[in-house]
Amino acid sequence: MDLGLTGKVALVAGGSAGIGLAIARELVAEGATVAICGRDPARLAAAREELGGAVSATALDVRDTAGAAAWVERTAAEHGAVHLLVTNAGGPPAGASGAFSLEEYRAAVELGMLAHIGLVQAALPHLLAAGWGRVVMVTSETVRQPIPEYALSNIVRPGVVGYAKTLVRELGAGEITVNVLAPGYTATAALPGPEEEVATDAGIPLGRVARPEEVAAAAVFLLSGRAGFITGTVQVVDGGRALGV
């Protein structure tokens, strides 16, 4: 299947490891020009070597609004356009709602919501100029079904969904789509224990956690030309764990 991504210019935040790296890998395979960012220079260098020298890699904390905007502008200047944006950042720490100070709540908002919004705001003028674009905002299954031990994620990340759905209405007619990807437990460094144990404790019907490439496959389809009539959705990739209809 041709996903229509050859020659498209993609920005993948958090692209040096885990789900972000898996998405970048799939985009490269589909012929896109890819720029990744991440906080760890060593992991970035390893990711760039794996993905190929044509991929650009920038050390960046996505909470740095000015730095994130500069990354977008440099990529657009280098390649003449930006078509695809994947917003992706680490999750807040686990714990009950009363376990965190107000400052820790503010930090969770910065990472789990405002960093995503800042990247979209920086990239959107370029998508509009190109007349075609895709935005995928990577959050968590907690936007669909709260998990008691992840209070900060339950509280903060649904704001990304509200932003995405609002933006879809504001964009109106055209060829720019905005969707939210909501992965469940995935086999990355952030997994809170051995894979089999996590899958059992979480009650995942498929009996295992997701592989990063499975989450990436959903993301890349939403980024593709084939998904032109899918916008404003929350795509859960959780192995059937969510119980809501």
Brief account:
With 245 residues, this protein is an alpha/beta fold. Helix content is 43%, strand content 15%. The protein starts with 8 loop residues before the first strand and ends in an 8-residue tail after the last strand.
Number of strands: 7
* SSE pattern: EHEHEHEHEHHEHHE
Report low-confidence residues grouped into runs of 5 or more: none
Q: What is Rg?
A: 17 Å
Tally of DSSP helical segments: 8
Share in β-strands: 5-15%
The CATH first-level class comes to Alpha Beta
CATH fold-level name? Rossmann fold
Give the fraction of residues assigned to helices.
Answer: 40-55%
Mean pLDDT: 96
CATH architecture: 3-Layer(aba) Sandwich
Shape: globular
CATH superfamily: NAD(P)-binding Rossmann-like Domain
Structure, described:
By secondary structure, this protein is of the alpha/beta class. The chain has a single domain (9-237), classed as 3-Layer(aba) Sandwich (Rossmann fold), CATH 3.40.50.720. The chain has eight helices and seven strands. The protein has helices at 18-29, 41-51, 65-79, 102-130, 151-156, 158-171, 195-202, 212-222; strands spanning 9-12, 33-38, 56-59, 84-87, 133-138, 176-183, 234-237. Helix 2 links the parallel strand 2 and strand 3 (56-59). It starts with 8 loop residues before the first strand and ends in an 8-residue tail after the last strand.
